[in-house]
Amino acid sequence: MSKEARYALQKTVPIILGFLFLGTSYGIYMHKLGFNFLYPLLMAAIIFAGSIEFVIGNLLIQHFQPLTVLILTLLVNSRHIFYGITMLKKYSHTGRLKPFLIYGMCDESFSLNATLEVPQELDRPRVYFYVTLFNYCSWVIGAGLGGLLGGLIRLDLQGLDFVMTALFIVLFTEQLKSLKSQKNALIGFAFAVLGLFVCGQNTFLLVTLLLLVIAFSINYYWKAGASK
């Protein structure tokens, strides 16, 4: 295993464990809906979009409406547009690794790659690649295992999805500790809380991201104008 792979593995262990648990619960859920293990395995590998996979699983047992699925997926995963904009500079020199980095970007991979302080002796694009690969594989493997073991496991998995919420809290805390100034992070937190109360849980994330982009853009151009 290369130095980059070992470093990435060290950083992703908490996410890998969370993905294995949550991916397994997704596979079990799909089994309970009546699908064999190939469905959660292939959906995890091809869609790779977390919560929307649970939703699509439920929609598949109803009268399937592709347009509804398309619109719902765009709404739920619209935040990835902002992730992509943020990572344009970091991924600009990743060469042939870029397509997979784009395809495999999820909330957790974005959070980690966006804040990693990669040692100078390591190849940064490869570290980003391995972080994304480990997260991707753990989700797909977990989904496949859950589908295979769904008929054997008799557990109440209600609330297991809180594993990823707890993981995000840990990542957010670590980012706060590593930043020189917590102002922007606290502004983002305040906007998110305000958006949740005003817009509700279904649309608050998209509204929050849009407001943050507008606010930080105004602040950037205001500072740029003041420095001239």
TrEMBL record:
Membrane topology label: Multi-pass membrane protein
Main location: membrane
Keywords for this protein: Cell membrane, Membrane, Transmembrane, Transmembrane helix, Transport
Coiled coil residues, start to end: none
Record-stated family: Belongs to the AzlC family.
UniProt-listed PANTHER family: INNER MEMBRANE PROTEIN YGAZ
Full protein name: Branched-chain amino acid transporter AzlC
Source organism phylogeny: Bacteria, Bacillati, Bacillota, Bacilli, Lactobacillales
